[in-house]
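Why this split exists: single-chain examples teach little about how molecules sit against one another. For that reason, every record in the complexes split bundles all components of an assembly together and asks for one structure covering all of them. Below is a record exactly as it appears in the raw files.
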Amino acid sequence: MQLVWLEMRDFRSYGSLSFRPDPGVNVLVGPNGAGKTSVLEAIGYLATLSSFRRSPEGALVREGAETAIVRGEFFTGAGGAIIEVETPPTGRRRVLLNGKRAQSRADVAGVVAVVAFLPDDLDLVKRGPAYRREYLDDVAAQAWPAVSTEQAEYERALRQRNALLRKDGRRTDETTLDVWDDRVSRLGAKVLERRLSVLDLLEPEVSSLYTELGEGSERLSWRYSAAGIGFLSGGTGGAELVEPLRRALSDARQEDLERRTTTVGPHRDELAISIDRRDARTRASQGEQRSIALGMRIAAFRVLFDRRGSAPVLLLDDVFSELDAARSRRLVGHLPDAQVFVTSARSEEVPLVGARWRVDDGEVAAA
Amino acid sequence: MFEAPVQRLIDELSRLPGIGQKSAQRLAFHVLHIEEEDARRLADAITSMREQVRLCARCFNVTDTEQCSICRDLRRDPAEVCVVERAQDIVVIERTQEFRGRYHVLGGAISPIEGIGPEQLRIQELVARIDDEGIKEIIAATNPTVEGDTTALYLARLLKPLGVKVTRLASGLPVGGDLDYADEITLGRALAGRLEL
Ligand SMILES: [Zn+2]
């Protein structure tokens, strides 16, 4: 997959930008705040319709502008596709795929896949389970585009159940709650099934990458622990998961009624990573954690490449400044053959050969 | 900002669904340039629709008489009732020509986020119709959304113990949208292949 051209208007700090990248490596160099990351963010936004900075959509619109427009053409194995997203400061965004209104995120996810390496990727390993759940869900949604619809429906059903509990607490009507339990467990089972499938594909890659990235021979392993159910392994079918989820919800009902929120379900699950028997979150060195995080991103690339039959676009946002020379070299050695976008404040810290672009004051020019 | 009377019309128009500021301006300036007679006819159409139209006493469809034309039609089968969220969904289902029963308009779907529970919908009114009209089957034609599915399931839980068969349109409808996103053929098929909940 390859971005052929990109146009932005009133996106972040850009008035307007038109950019024709190289099909190979693109290194964007410029001072902090010059707008390098916004270019990568715009590419990611076209592919996933969300910001990898976790910004709310309104924040993407340039101050005072009526709407932000991002447009780009991707060349995929199946030909070209033009994606266009118009985002107002408030209200619904408009997405066009080849000039036609796209119905859902899944339509766009079916066109192009991206993998982003971010400066705070260490969070994937160090911080709470939400980061690892999001990682699994993101890879799953790009591996099987229909999954983003299932994820959105689960989120919606969960928000509805929580709204019901928040409003009525212990006086919540049992029949209405039963009905929401049914929705949450059926939709939750789909989300869970996809997570387990993607975990199955990712785990061997991450384990071997951990060794390949030079962290020695200790064995890296993952364990998925489902809230209210227990440990689950890959290959568990969605139909087998509905009943356990329903039981977990019914066991937790008293607590849910008291706490006025849903305390079990895929939104509370944990993916624990360990090195031999050490917990990677609390008992690994920063260097080891760094290698696990890099491994998780490269593994995502490999899995998506395999599923989609074409290399995802790689986005590396200010990643090299966080790595020592040895890890930088190993990362470069493992970067797959793909279109790559790299940002950096210092040109010399990026040990990659490719097109160099100077980003300054809302302009991108060949350096 | 425009002159006050123009701005007032723009403000009113932009409150309509699907009309943004720009479209509202375009419409307002269009009205500015039409004959005064045409403007009056437009205003009259809006107010007289509101005065003359009311809800059917039985099914809550829009009508200008006590009961709507479907409820008054003796050829329609009272044993089958198709439950929809909004009155305009009736038009969509009628277009398929696959359904010969009556309707019931709930007035929405269960959505705690918006403060809508079963008691905010016309569910008690539906229950009251079951014995009165000898209803045997309820077809839950609520939208294929999380809320629509949940409402359908709620109706099944509530009505099955009363001896009513509750069915749901077969899948194949575009997920997440309104009923009127589906074309007649797809909807007709979904209706014919409905499944018991
Ligand atoms: Zn009627």
